[in-house]
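In this section we walk through a basic example: taking a raw amino acid sequence and producing a predicted 3D structure, encoded as discrete structure tokens. The instruction is simple. Fold the sequence below.
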Amino acid sequence: MICVSIGRTRHKMVTLEHQALAQKGAELVEYRLDYLSHLPDLGRLLKDRPTPVVITIRRAEDKGRWRDTEEQRQTLLRQAIVQGVEFVDLEWDIAMQIRRYGKTKRIISYHNFSETPEDLADIHARMTKLDPDIIKLATMANSPGDMVRMLQLVKHSSVPTAGFCMGEFGMASRVLCGKYGSPLTYATFNKDRELAPGQLSFDEMQRLYRFDQINADTQVFGVLGDPLSHTYSPLIHNAAFQHLGMNAVYVPFRVPKDKLTATLRDFDWLDVNGYSITIPHKEDVIGKADFSDEAVQTIEAANTLWKDAGGQWHATNTDYLAALQTLAIGLESEPDNHFILAGKRVMMLGAGGVAKAIGTGVVKNGGILMIASRSHTRAKELAEKLGCQHVLWENRGAQYADVLINCTPVGMHPNVDDSPFADNWLRDGMLVFDTIYNPENTLLIKQAKQRDCRTISGLEMFIRQAAAQFELFTCQPAPIEHMRETLRRELSPVRLNP
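The resulting token sequence is shown next.
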């Protein structure tokens, strides 16, 4: 069950938000009374409540906002119990000072905002002796492995335990805890009112991750990278799972570069069935696979790890094929006609991981490739590797090209007024392919349309590479049109209000 936390300074706003959440399907709401600017009026708050309530009054030492005495705080907790609130949250060090009464259930909680302690299991064992109905553990994850330790504890607990990790390294545990038996996870009213590090909104928990449908049989997939704050992969993969009625969830796993090996080892316990791979792991992850296909061996970078029926890991690069299909569509050909590039002069901007995949595809299919990058050293190195021409960044507009491909982040949201290529360098009839998909219509694409160029956005490539991953992960055809429209709907506010 998703417990939605409300932290407002006024009684009226607490009541209004609770009513709004109930209308959206919320089944349990937490009143953070320490946020109120005046002493709480429990009678007013609890009267005619539309759903069950958890009463929580968090102390300053637990990152709460309670400003009055501890005696007053505990008195309010006792009053909430007497008035028949459904749940009361009691910190583990004061739990035995407040007795059980009536039908109110006791959530005994432990919070640690600095770490996930090594003796977490011992702390949990002591909490089982404090007359809990539910134990709540919320600790800061300083590495992805902390999240695994927490979820293992949740799974093996004899007492219902709501356990998850805070922070970016622990965000996935707020979703996955349901798979391992957690009776609750916590969410905030909306994205703008996070009450704890890494907390997701009710809408994200309900619509994006479908938390209440997660169970022990749910298959787990995810994206590995650092950073991951702007990835749309969970959106389109989870939309595809829901569209096909699959019991599966896709979550972001933030993993630092130096933690990749240890994390993949720790994640064996999570039984993840497939990973999308992004910066900075596309090269290092190859060595973690049992098999690598020809595309990976050629490009020396992978964007996908998938596990076969025998439990062996395969590395592939779906960017490679997706880029070729996208270019073919842009040149008004069938997606599988890659040889339409033969003899065409292609100017590629950028020399990073995506550029490496696209450049390899262009060269292997007969295109005449030129590479320009703001880092001339990287452009030269990639050009030598691919056996093509490199061009100084300042000379990129002086070269005749049939196709222009932008593989740089220039023009990506929020810097939507930037372009990597001056509009006076564009010529009628050339194909302009911008690998950026947020926004879909970048300044480069807009200017290219004004110059009567053929254009294609990065959204098509992003969807096609994700669809290819989905099919490897699930052995089912991807609902590509549904994935495409889901992403377009999500990006439309960004396009309209950049």
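Looking at the output, two observations stand out. Confidence is low (pLDDT under 50) at residues 494-498. The chain has three domains: 2-216, 248-316+462-496, 323-456. In the next section we compare this with other chains.
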